[in-house]
């Protein structure tokens, strides 16, 4: 039985209030590092989102 790999993307709100979404897909460890980096520069509402191949997340509102 094959295990499906989950890929993650991120959505967040910039410090100036603009909603954003990443176009890249990350494994869980890399997504967690990216989340911490975004939070360190003052971004809020940072969320990990599971994405399917070819799918992009909607920016956080």
Which structural traits does this protein have?
61 residues, alpha+beta, 21% helix
Can you characterise this structure?
The chain has 61 residues and is an alpha+beta fold. Helix content is 21%, strand content 30%. The protein has a three-stranded antiparallel β-sheet with strand order 2-1-3, with helices on one face. It is flat, with a radius of gyration of 12 Å. The mean pLDDT is 88.
Write the SSE topology.
Blueprint: E1 7-13, E2 19-21, H1 28-40, E3 44-51
Antiparallel strand pairs: 1-2, 1-3
Give me a quick take on this structure:
The protein is α+β, with helices and mostly antiparallel strands and 61 residues long. It contains one helix and three strands.
Major sheet summary line? 3 strands, antiparallel
Portion of residues in helices?
Answer: 10-25%
Number of helices: 1
Radius of gyration: 12 Å
Ends apart, CA distance between termini: 39 Å
